[in-house]
Amino acid sequence: MHPRLPRFLPVLLACATALACSAAQAEPQRVARWEVERFVLLSADVRHPEGLAADPASEQLYVGTFDARMPPSARNNQLLRYAADGRLLAQRSFGESPLTGLAVADGKLYLLNFGAGRLQRIALDFDAAAPVEDVARFEALAPAAPAPRRIDNPDGSQDTVVFGAAGLPAINGMVFDRAGNLYVSDSFQGAIYRIAQATRCAPCTVSTLLRDPLLATAGALPFGANGLALNADESVLYINNAGDGRVLRLPLPDGPLTVLAEGLYGADGLQFHGGRLWVVANQIDTVLALDEAGRVRGRAGAFLGIAADGAPEGLLFPASTAVLGDWMFVTNLALPLTARTGDEWEEEVQRWSLSRFRLPARP
């Protein structure tokens, strides 16, 4: 060793450490991007796919439609069953009654019949004539609207949002836990319901788990509490508020309810998969992957226009997701919302579709 080297060794080590730290700090932190592709084009007479569920055992996908056209006699709501390769295997008519959330549990397909205000179930291998069983009925709450929400403004002032509701249940999202208990959101009445052991009862008792001003909205998109998801150990229930563009966090069994993430306009369908919260942001035509701190880690899809066959290219007003194998599937609800004509691409859609994208490796 050079005789002077010991004197400078600490300095050299410090410089080397600083350079390594600087290099580590310079490593880019990127938000992943995933491209979507069309999976299947719905039949010409079927529109507005909303709910979506998957059965890993049979590798089949289930789709429910939210056709709310007026007059009701114009509607053609359907429950659809697809193979993993996109073949339509069966469909059952629900006529005038729009459907929202779907879920597979204990060998049955559960569906939220929005029009009837009921939780129902049907065989996984249903056909056009399969019977539908009523499981639970949702009623008007008293009071119909949750309490007012106080907002503290940056200038020290305060606003108070007073919500209105007509007592119409708007059952929208649902998620089962591993014990068969079911959680259901109500988008108009600002509520989360719980049905104990929903796979083993009929009729079932509906309990109101939570009513909170954070579950209601006064936003332009008139749906509050929407998609639901449980974390890996089922200690936390995550809730989307579509009109507020927020993901909420509720530690079970009794809270408190807090805001996890915001700025996700149109936060609709929600699921927890691969250590991420997958949020369908329907008003920005994107599926977002969030970590459990609420930070966006990835984005899938965008609206790219209307194809020659009249269906969306990319995503347009996506509503729900489901996972089969290495793929995440997405419904393109493509539902016009405003009374004005000519301001929404959804008005141009002539055919409706499902999209998909390949899931990343687990982080």
Automatic annotation (TrEMBL):
The keyword Acetylation does not apply. Residues 1-26 form the signal peptide. Keywords: Signal. SUPFAM superfamilies: NHL repeat. The keyword Signal applies. It comes from the Bacteria. This is Sugar lactone lactonase YvrE. It comes from Pseudorhodoferax aquiterrae.
